Amino acid sequence: MAKKLYVGNLPFETSDQDLGDLFSTAGTVESVNMVRDQATGRARGFAFVEMASDEDAQNAITKLNNHNLGGRNLTVNEARPKTPGGGGGFGGGGGGRGGGGGRRSEPRW
């Protein structure tokens, strides 16, 4: 079963290919997901790497945590699942338009 790893403190110029090549030294890489800013497309300094097995994932953590890449020491650990309602700025409380609050939705002529 594949194991997802969090990789933090990445240099902003790191590509998916660079990261995949680095992690392939520790085992079989299933996928690389470099997180980018939606507005600018610029890397945000962290990524998720999915390794083919638990053994490959553990090997990658042991070998690459605190590894120097582009002058920065990487943080590599097991990715934690998203917390409900956490992050992203989406979902959550009402606010804004809609939702009944006595406001009419049809045009006023």
Query: Helix-strand pattern, N to C?
Result: EHEEHEEE
Total strands:
6
Summed up, the helix count is 2
Beginning-to-end CA distance, first to last residue: 61 Å
Radius of gyration: 20 Å
Shape: elongated
Would you give an account of this structure?
- With 109 residues, this protein is of the alpha+beta class.
- Helices cover 18% and strands 28% of the residues.
- The strands form two sheets. The protein has a four-stranded antiparallel sheet. It has a two-stranded antiparallel sheet with strand order 4-5.
- β4 (68-69) and β5 form a beta hairpin.
- The termini are far apart.
- The relative contact order is 0.23.
Element layout with pairings:
Elements: E1 3-8, H1 16-24, E2 29-36, E3 43-51, H2 54-64, E4 68-69, E5 72-73, E6 75-78
In short:
The chain has two helices and six strands; from the N terminus they run E-H-E-E-H-E-E-E. By secondary structure, it is α+β, with helices and mostly antiparallel strands. The longest helix has 11 residues, at 54-64.
Please tag this protein with its features.
109 residues, alpha+beta, four-stranded antiparallel beta sheet, two-stranded antiparallel ribbon, 2 helices, 18% helix, 28% strand, elongated
